[in-house]
Amino acid sequence: MWGQCLVVEGAAGPWREHWDSVLKSVADQECWSSHRYNEGNFNCYTFVLNFLQNLRYGNLSKAAVSRTNFCENFIVPRTTAAGKYISLYRKLNDLGCYIQRQNFHTIVPANVEMELTILACEPTVKFNSDEATDEFCFDHDSDVDKGHLKKRAVSNMQIAFGLTPLSAQALINNYPALKSVSLESIQCNINYFRDKGLSLDTLKKNPWLLTYKIGTIRSKLEILSTWNLGDVNVIYPLLRMKLNELKENSKIEETDNDNISTGKRIKYTSDKLKCDLTEACKVFGEHEFLYSMPFKKYSCIMEKLLEAKISPHHILKDVWVFQYGIKKIEVRLQVLKEVGVNPIKPWMLRSSPKIFETTLQRVLSRKEVLGESSVVEYLTQQLECDVETVEFLASKHPILLKKHVTKLNEVFDFLYAEGFTPQQVIQVPRIMFHSVETIKSRLTELREAGYNPSSLMTLCKSKREFAKIVEIAMKRKLRNIPYT
């Protein structure tokens, strides 16, 4: 089974020499059957990922291939079943193994398959850090004083973009990689992008573009030109992708062409979510898993989200929902629909069970309080005022219409039971943002000090101011001086 899942290319030394022995050891199930290792909830796949890593970097002798040494020396920390396979998948990719995803899933037990939807979202191939760092400019020695590097980088940004010292420093703080790039490389990149039609303003807003080598940028743009998405002003967000990822994604694009009427996954997203191509490119540039996941799954989830009337804007802002299983999304959408949640947001579909249950409970409590009324209508009833007054309060305190209705209801019930009026609440709207516990505690403390407040403003004071009021009230009480 492992022979079907892994293909080792470019292997040499102990890696190639021991590969057949490794496969043989893994295939020999007796190696993993002892009570000692079963008790620890380990399995051959979690052992082998550590073994392969050590073997790749020459940390093992031939003797270590033996089953005994293999088991005794490379036990990994206990983790969940799904976690083992995810860890294995990622580490094998990091070692330079080409993973046949379809075959890899055949070794995943059925009882953890639902938890492994993330595997479908991992890139087909991961490339090592050396290949990734080769894409960037490192013109300055890392041993140079960091303070000097930062000052030089700030100066470079001032010269390149005509920024003030403060603006240039803020830019370097946000993009520290620019400290490793010389002024010559920065100006070279700016000239290259300007020749391609990218505006200086776009470069100023996306200075990360200046951290790449010219050769890398040229190669990436050559690949992207075959995608027919538009000029550099449209596709520049995709330059965030590693060069090798772009090559792999080009192959995916060719496969997608047979499945997508619009021809490209990015164009499909732009059409479905009614956004421009640049915005869609930005999402794909920042979330590579959108390319590595099967288009069938991606399009299925997309259709379900749109059918549930989830805002395209919210989908674009939270594409992590595409990493989750279709079945889980279907079940949650059905529950949210039955409860009457509106609007539905992507985070509700991917939240933990505890948060999901809390959300449902809040919605049910809200419906119990409001009935068929809106929040504005509810407030007009509670405050005994017109809609204009509520809208005025909301303009001054925008959070008012977002506060949980059940908490507002508790505040109103308590205040009115204590003798306060709706008019007093309108005069001091800040009282609505305090918890019942805080209001009750402060009111009790004041009354024990002999002071019964006539205004709610006293209950809204800062801790220090409130403490002074209580202190004065206590002194008056001890002297039998009435508090007026």
List the helices and strands and how they pair.
Elements: H1 2-5, E1 6-7, H2 14-17, H3 19-27, H4 35-39, H5 44-56, H6 67-73, H7 81-94, E2 98-99, H8 101-104, H9 110-113, H10 129-133, H11 146-161, H12 165-174, H13 183-196, H14 200-205, H15 214-225, H16 232-235, H17 243-256, H18 265-273, H19 277-286, H20 289-292, H21 295-307, H22 312-317, H23 326-339, H24 346-350, H25 353-370, H26 375-383, H27 387-396, H28 405-417, H29 422-427, H30 436-448, H31 463-478
Helix pairs in contact: 5-7, 11-12, 11-13, 15-17, 18-19, 26-27, 30-31
Q: Would you kindly provide a written description of the structure presented here, covering whatever features stand out?
A:
There is one protein chain. By secondary structure, the chain is an all-alpha fold. Among the domains are: 2-126, no CATH class; 375-478, no CATH class. It has 31 helices and two strands. The protein has a two-stranded antiparallel sheet. Helix 5 (44-56) packs parallel to helix 7. It is flat. The N and C termini lie far apart (87 Å). The model is unreliable at 1-20, 22-47, 53-80, 91-107 and 112-133 (pLDDT under 50).
